[in-house]
């Protein structure tokens, strides 16, 4: 965002599906500069009524399970066979530390990234999970405004990132590798509960039998997870490398999405997500305002030292800091 | 707290080990009335320099594993054999809903509750986990001021309550029941990582062999958990019902505690806990002040409705609510 861009012109170009404009809009939305922030709010407001019409799919799985290959394979099926327009985003709060990380290397999805109907964007490379998630949500809206009707949001599964991705998508695909039954515990129970669709990858060649056994194990485990909202979880085996089962995977996802729409559950999920997003933003901004206060910032080190040393009660310290706050 | 109590007199009585005064002080600390809150802050400040000298042990385990029986057995060993003074507290944010819940029924620890050197207090029966945890932390300080030198804090393991209890204790004891190896996944991985000591209960009679097998399974699993702070986790089998192994359990806990003291890790843990507690209090109070504002409260429903309906961006809604806030 080196030179100023007119937000009205930029938003019109995004709505017309101009890829360069979309990339520029995303850079604006990802910026943390205050003047950029104000303009990105205006930009998003201008495209808001053209958002929300894509199928939003969260995708998780431990490293090595073949997420990139699957996304490449699924993305090409959507674009080439079904004529869809696919955006691929990522949430990885660790990407600054690891220097690049997921989706940063476009050669990982070489074919998909060359398609004019696919748009691949790496994870914002800074900050807390909350910050990364907020910017990814906003980028998703921009992609929808630009006409992408499927959004795939990948996560590496670090910390709470699966929950963050499930909190911004319509349904959640968990990818696992063929494994012995006793390795099933390697997937966190909480992540199993998020999964609307579970796919066992690498169901090809020598691993086929093992993949089917793993599918049976996970299928049984999935039925035991708590499902507050009634969608019956689906599971299947695929091979991202050979492409086998990838069309079936999309059928399963589309079918689950249709069920969510038909039952009204999609509307409920999105309403809950919007509500949570509002109060997350409120919490973040209220606390940022507090910490930005120079008197509070000046007093905090001595209060913290007193509390840590056990000379002052935490409640007393908090009361002092609040008393010092002048907005 | 029907009639006013002089805080100076009350704090002196607590410091003298007067049980009735301790009970009255706890009731004051647990009250949510503003005038009680102000007096409890004063009360806690008066006893602060006599706190922090107990061994603080968090205890968790799924329902039916025998937590009450174990606490009764361990408590009696501490009081009768070792001459310690034991306070037993609980954190159960669900206790209002379930109407009583853990430690509410003193008959569960009938013998221990009759001892003059034991003090059993049920979980505060209201509110969020944060609120329950804050009051339990303050009650712990009062118990220490009254001369109790071991504090056992029980949790039912609902939601994040184990993390809250680990955040207020020196070390964490996880109690499990004899089980088949494939049931090991029933314990959340995050909880395994909190455990400094793991005890397999019900190692008696017909279950003895199964308890030893379970001990081997969990012992192996424990070694695989991440341990950022270097304490090697201990595991052993006990029978709370027969008392077998209960003296050994305390030896293991005391030994681990000694290691934490010697390495400086205990001081680090407590400093981290105090710091987190301070910022939890700050966050809670800042957000409470925001939500208590009548203009904010009046505006919030329409902003939320606009955001939920997708007519307004969450960031925009948050900015409007913050703009309306006048402290």
Description:
- Two copies of one chain form a homodimer.
- Chain A has 327 residues and is α/β, with parallel strands linked by helices.
- Chain A contains 14 helices and seven strands.
- The first copy, chain A, is globular.
- In chain A, 43% of the residues are buried.
- About 2% of the residues of chain A have low confidence.
- Chains A and B meet through helix 3, helix 12, helix 13 and helix 14 of A and helix 3, helix 12, helix 13 and helix 14 of B.
- Low-pLDDT sequence parts of chain A: 96-101
| Cα gyration radius of chain A (Å) | 22 Å
* Greatest interface (CB-CB under 8 A), with counts per chain: A-B, 49 and 48 residues
Looking at how many chains there are and whether they match, the oligomeric state comes to homodimer
What share of the residues of chain A lie within helices? 40-55%
Spatial strand sequence of the major β-sheet of chain A: 3-2-4-1-5-6-7
Strand content of chain A: 5-15%
Give the strand tally of chain A: 7
N to C succession of SSEs of chain A: HHHEHEHHEHEHEHEHEHHHH
Task: Name the structural class of chain A.
Answer: alpha/beta
| Mean of residue pLDDT values of chain A | 87
The N- and C-terminal alpha carbons of chain A lie at a distance of 32 Å
Could you say which overall geometry of chain A the principal axes of the C-alpha atoms support?
globular
Outline the biggest β-sheet of chain A: 7 strands, parallel
**Number of H- or I-type helical stretches of chain A:** 14
